C-alpha cells in the first residue's frame, strides 16, 4: 500500500492506494501556522481501518520550502563565487556574493589558482553564518576548485550546511546554479527540522515505510536525500496535481490541465502524453534556478476566491477570505456562484443565494450575479491560458528536425481536477471550444499524484578525450580515461553506472530500470587540422512519472 499526502493552500489531503485503487481518502483544512499539525491530522483520518504495517511507502507533497521562500523566512547564506572573467554578477543574485580568485576554463583546465587567504578573510568577515554556498563558473567541467573552497569554508566558517553548485546541477548556466545553491542552503535548516518532525510522526503512528518528498519535476526523493537538496522540493503542490492527472487520466492528445483548488488554479500544458517542463528551470522570487520543474502558471482563481463589487465592477480573486458562505464562511466566493448557477450540488444553497445577492447590481438577480461572477473567473483563467499558449508558440527551436517536423501546440482537451473542477472546468473548456474531462478522484488528485510518483534523480557526464578525463559534477567526480578508446558509447556506459551510484546513495537503487537519456552531444577537438579527441556530454535520469495508473471513485468529498 502507498500513502500519499498533499499540503495545499486550502486543504491537506491524503490517500491510501493499493494495486492501483484508492482504498481510503481524507481531507482537513491546512494549518498554515504549523503545517505538521494538519499533516498529522489527515494521516490519522486516512489510516482509520487501514493496516499500517502493510504501507510500504509514504510520499509527501509539502509547501514548507515554497512558503519559506515566499515569506522570506530563510537563513542568511555566505555566498562564495569563482566567476573568472566575463559577466558582472553584481545585483543578479540573491544575497551578497563574495568573489574569489581562482578560475577553471570551459574545458575544466585551471587557469588561475585559488588564494586560500581570501577564503579565510571572507569566513572571518561572515563569522557566525550557519549556511554557505560555493559556486564556480565551470565547476561542472572540473569540480576541484569548488570542492577545495568548500573544504576551507567548512574549516574556517564551520556552517551547518554548505551547498556546492555543481552537485545540484550539471548544466552550464552559471547564474541558475548560483541561485539554486543559494536557496538550497537558505532553506536547509527549516526543511531539516520539518523532515525530522515528519519522521517522528510517521514512526509514532506505527508506519515502518520509507518517506519520500515530491520534487518540482514530478519525481520523488527519499527524505534523507531530500535533506541535502531541499530546494528541489519547491512547487511540489502543482507538481502533485500534474502527477495526479497522469495517474488518473493521462492525456494522449495535446491538452491543458487545471488544478482548481480553494485559493488558485494551476495550469499545465501536455504534449505527446507528458507535461511540458519549464525551459531552463524554475524561478524563485524572480531569480532563475536550475531546479527542473514542470512548466506551470498559477492564477488567483479558486473555489474560495473572494467576490466583491467595487466602483470598477465585479472583482473575483485573487484574495481569499476563508471558505465560501455556502460552506460556512463569511464572504461571497466562487463556490457560492457555482452553487446558485446549479453547477455543483454541495454547500448550503440558501447561504449561496444570500452571498450572490450581496454582490448583485441593482438590476440583477442572485442568478445573474452568479453567472457574472463565473464569467469573470473563467475569463481570468482563459487569459492565463492564452498567455501560456503564446509563450509556447514563441519558444525558440534549436533542432533541424523540430523545424521540419514540429507542429504548433493546439490543445484538444481540457482536464480539470480539484475541488471546484466540476463547476469551472466545463465553462473554461466551452470558452476555449475544446472537450473537457473531470476524472473520478479529482477531489484528491494531488494526494494521488504524490502517492504514485516515481523516485528520480539525474547525472551529467562530460568527457574530454583530448585531455583524457570525464567529470560527473553531481557526484564530484573527475575520472581519467583512455584518450584513444573512450567514445560516446563508453560515455553512456559510464553514465549509467554513475546514475546507479547516485541512486544507491539516495536510497532509490531499485528505480534504475526506468532511466532515460535526456541529452547527448558530441563534437571533435581539432588542432593543426587534425582531430585529437572528442568532447562528449551525456545527461541521464530516472524518468519522472507515476508508478501505475490509478482507479478512483468519487472520493475525497468529506
From TrEMBL:
<dbReference type="InterPro" id="IPR008040">
    <property type="entry name" value="Hydant_A_N"/>
</dbReference>
<dbReference type="InterPro" id="IPR045079">
    <property type="entry name" value="Oxoprolinase-like"/>
</dbReference>
<keyword id="KW-0378">Hydrolase</keyword>
<dbReference type="GO" id="GO:0005829">
    <property type="term" value="C:cytosol"/>
</dbReference>
<dbReference type="InterPro" id="IPR043129">
    <property type="entry name" value="ATPase_NBD"/>
</dbReference>
<feature type="domain" description="Hydantoinase/oxoprolinase N-terminal">
    <location>
        <begin position="3"/>
        <end position="156"/>
    </location>
</feature>
<dbReference type="Pfam" id="PF01968">
    <property type="entry name" value="Hydantoinase_A"/>
</dbReference>
<dbReference type="GO" id="GO:0017168">
    <property type="term" value="F:5-oxoprolinase (ATP-hydrolyzing) activity"/>
</dbReference>
<dbReference type="GO" id="GO:0006749">
    <property type="term" value="P:glutathione metabolic process"/>
</dbReference>
<dbReference type="GO" id="GO:0047423">
    <property type="term" value="F:N-methylhydantoinase (ATP-hydrolyzing) activity"/>
</dbReference>
<dbReference type="Pfam" id="PF05378">
    <property type="entry name" value="Hydant_A_N"/>
</dbReference>
<feature type="domain" description="Hydantoinase A/oxoprolinase">
    <location>
        <begin position="177"/>
        <end position="458"/>
    </location>
</feature>
<dbReference type="InterPro" id="IPR002821">
    <property type="entry name" value="Hydantoinase_A"/>
</dbReference>
<protein>
    <submittedName>
        <fullName>N-methylhydantoinase (ATP-hydrolyzing)</fullName>
        <ecNumber>3.5.2.14</ecNumber>
    </submittedName>
</protein>
Amino acid at each position: 500500500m502507498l500513502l500519499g499526502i498533499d499540503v495545499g493552500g486550502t486543504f491537506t489531503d491524503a490517500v491510501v492506494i493499493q494495486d492501483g485503487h484508492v482504498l481510503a481518502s481524507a481531507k482537513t483544512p491546512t494549518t498554515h501556522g504549523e503545517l505538521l499539525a494538519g499533516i498529522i491530522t489527515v494521516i490519522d483520518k486516512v489510516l482509520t481501518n487501514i493496516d499500517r504495517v502493510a504501507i510500504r511507502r509514504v510520499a509527501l507533497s509539502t509547501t514548507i520550502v515554497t512558503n519559506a521562500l515566499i515569506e522570506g523566512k530563510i537563513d542568511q547564506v555566505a555566498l562564495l563565487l569563482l566567476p573568472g572573467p566575463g559577466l558582472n554578477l553584481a545585483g543578479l543574485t540573491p544575497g551578497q556574493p563574495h568573489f574569489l580568485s581562482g578560475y577553471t576554463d570551459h574545458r575544466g583546465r585551471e587557469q588561475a589558482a585559488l588564494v586560500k587567504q581570501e577564503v579565510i578573510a571572507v569566513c572571518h568577515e561572515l563569522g557566525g553564518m550557519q549556511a554557505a554556498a560555493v559556486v564556480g563558473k565551470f565547476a561542472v567541467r572540473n569540480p576541484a576548485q569548488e570542492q577545495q573552497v568548500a573544504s576551507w569554508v567548512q574549516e574556517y566558517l564551520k556552517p551547518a550546511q554548505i551547498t556546492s553548485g555543481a552537485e545540484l546541477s550539471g548544466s552550464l548556466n552559471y547564474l541558475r546554479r548560483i541561485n539554486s545553491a543559494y536557496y538550497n542552503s537558505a532553506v536547509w535548516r527549516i526543511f531539516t527540522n520539518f523532515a525530522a518532525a515528519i519522521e517522528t510522526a510517521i514512526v509514532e503512528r506505527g508506519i515502518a515505510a520509507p518517506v519520500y518528498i515530491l520534487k518540482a519535476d514530478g519525481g520523488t526523493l527519499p527524505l534523507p536525500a531530500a535533506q541535502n537538496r531541499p530546494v528541489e522540493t519547491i512547487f511540489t503542490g502543482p507538481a502533485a496535481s500534474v502527477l495526479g492527472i497522469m495517474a488518473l487520466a493521462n492525456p494522449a492528445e495535446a491538452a491543458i490541465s487545471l488544478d482548481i483548488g480553494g485559493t488558485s488554479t494551476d495550469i499545465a500544458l501536455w504534449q505527446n502524453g507528458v507535461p511540458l517542463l519549464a525551459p531552463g528551470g524554475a524561478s524563485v522570487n524572480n531569480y532563475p534556478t536550475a531546479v527542473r520543474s514542470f512548466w506551470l502558471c498559477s492564477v488567483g482563481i479558486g473555489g474560495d476566491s473572494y467576490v466583491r463589487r467595487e466602483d470598477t465592477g465585479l472583482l473575483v480573486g485573487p484574495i481569499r477570505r476563508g471558505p465560501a458562505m455556502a460552506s460556512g464562511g463569511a464572504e461571497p466566493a466562487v463556490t457560492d456562484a457555482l452553487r446558485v448557477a446549479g453547477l455543483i450540488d454541495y454547500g448550503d444553497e440558501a447561504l449561496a443565494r444570500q452571498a450572490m445577492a450581496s454582490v448583485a447590481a441593482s438590476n440583477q438577480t442572485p442568478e445573474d450575479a452568479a453567472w457574472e461572477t463565473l464569467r469573470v473567473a473563467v475569463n481570468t483563467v482563459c487569459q492565463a491560458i492564452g498567455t501560456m499558449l503564446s509563450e509556447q508558440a514563441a519558444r525558440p527551436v534549436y533542432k533541424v528536425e523540430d523545424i521540419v517536423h514540429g507542429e504548433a501546440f493546439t490543445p484538444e482537451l481540457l482536464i480539470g481536477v480539484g475541488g471546484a473542477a466540476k463547476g469551472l472546468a466545463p465553462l473554461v473548456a466551452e470558452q476555449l471550444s475544446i472537450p473537457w474531462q473531470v476524472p473520478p478522484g479529482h477531489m484528491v488528485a494531488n494526494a494521488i499524484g504524490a502517492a504514485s510518483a516515481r523516485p528520480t534523480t539525474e547525472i551529467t557526464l562530460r568527457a574530454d578525450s583530448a585531455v583524457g578525463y570525464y567529470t560527473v559534477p553531481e557526484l564530484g567526480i573527475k575520472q581519467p580515461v583512455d584518450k584513444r578508446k573512450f567514445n560516446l558509447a563508453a560515455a553512456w556506459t559510464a553514465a549509467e553506472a554513475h546514475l546507479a551510484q547516485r541512486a544507491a546513495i539516495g536510497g532509490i537503487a531499485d528505480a534504475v530500470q526506468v532511466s532515460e537519456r535526456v541529452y547527448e552531444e558530441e563534437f571533435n577537438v581539432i588542432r593543426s587540422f587534425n582531430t585529437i579527441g572528442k568532447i562528449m556530454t551525456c545527461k541521464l535520469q530516472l524518468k519522472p512519472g507515476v508508478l501505475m495508473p490509478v482507479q478512483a471513485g468519487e472520493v475525497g468529498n468529506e
